[in-house]
Each structure stands twice: as C-alpha cells, then as structure tokens.
Amino acid sequence: MNKKIMILNGSPRKAGNTTALTAAFTKGAQAAGNSVTEFFLDNLHINGCKGCFGGGKNPESPCVQKDDMDQIYPVYKAADIVVLATPLYYWTISGQLKSAFDRLFAVAECDPHYRNPKKQSILIMAAEGSGFEESEYWYDRLQKHLGWKSLGKILCGGVMAVGDIKGKPELQQAYQLGESIH
C-alpha cells in the first residue's frame, strides 16, 4: 500500500544540502510507489503561532491566522508520514520549520481533547559540523508526546557550502529510507 508523505523543508536554501537529502529521499519513496508532497517553507508566508487557543473551529482552515499554512493543513491531515527536514542552526532546527510545526497545533484543536493526528515521521538534517543531540532530543520527545512513530533519522554533518553533500553516504541512506517505505 503506498503512503502519502509530506515533507516540511525548513531550509532557506532551495538548492542546499538539506534539499539534496529530501530529493534523494523523495526519489526512493516514489520508486517504492509512495506519493510525496514537499513544502519549501522559506518560500511560504507563515506567521508564528500566537498561542491564542482560538483554532479548531474550521477543520478546512483550522488556524485563526490566514496565511500559507492553509496550503499545508489538508496535506498534513491526509499524510501518513511527516518528514521534518532542516539544517542545523545554533544546535537545533531552523525557525522556518519550528514556526510551521507550531502552527500544526491548530489541527489538534479540532479535537476536543487536543489530540494530534497519529503519524509516522522522519527527521532529515544537514549541518556544517555535527552536534545533532539537541535536535534529536527535541524530535524524540516530540514523537513521544504526539504518539507518533519515528521511521528513522538521516543526519549529515560536514556540509556547509551548497553542494558539499555530493558523494556523502547520507544521500544513499536517504534514498534507501524512502525506498523502504511500503
């Protein structure tokens, strides 16, 4: 059975190393018969969460703020797997990814008990150096809190300049992880 996969790409560089990893993952996932929708968050207008608890009244547009999150909500709700893709910025995820993910809370507000839709997920990251521990801690705790199941992590260090990722084994690992999804 093919899966619906949504990628939230929090990189500000559309042709950067994080995007090279998501492209390899997508190629593998599509080869396995899955559908993939990627959102390049830096090109979208997404406001930060206001913490207003005013969402959830309209399942089609669950947040009170009206911006490009309305493109993401229907894909998110239909997705079986959510891929969180980001460069490592100051030892954690990018602001673009954090803002978008925070805004997904409006979907949980559609449930009277604030339950999030159950998903599987993947973490994909690229970094100049290393030091993914804080991001992994956040991701692991997020999975536990939401009741999601992680399918894996692709963490590629040593890739600062665009194109530094060429020839790195993590590209093949990303492809293989995508291809393993059935």
Provide structural commentary.
This protein is 35% helix and 19% strand. By secondary structure, the chain is of the alpha/beta class. The model has no long low-confidence stretch (mean pLDDT 96). Strand 4, helix 5 (133-146) and strand 5 form a beta-alpha-beta unit. The protein has a five-stranded parallel β-sheet, sandwiched between helices.
What is the string of helix and strand elements?
A: EHEHEHHEHEH
Under the CATH scheme, which class?
Alpha Beta
How would you characterize the largest beta sheet?
5 strands, parallel
What's the CATH topology label? Rossmann fold
CATH homologous superfamily - what is it? Flavodoxin domain
Unreliable spans: none
CATH A-level architecture: 3-Layer(aba) Sandwich
User: Total number of helical segments?
Assistant: 6
Number of β-strand runs:
5
CA-based shape? globular
Rg over CA atoms, rounded to whole Å, is 16 Å
- The helicity comes to 25-40%
Strand order of the largest sheet: 2-1-3-4-5
Task: Tell me the count of domains.
Answer: 1
The proportion of strand residues reads 15-25%
Oligomer: single chain
Spatial separation of the terminal alpha carbons: 6 Å
Mean pLDDT: 96
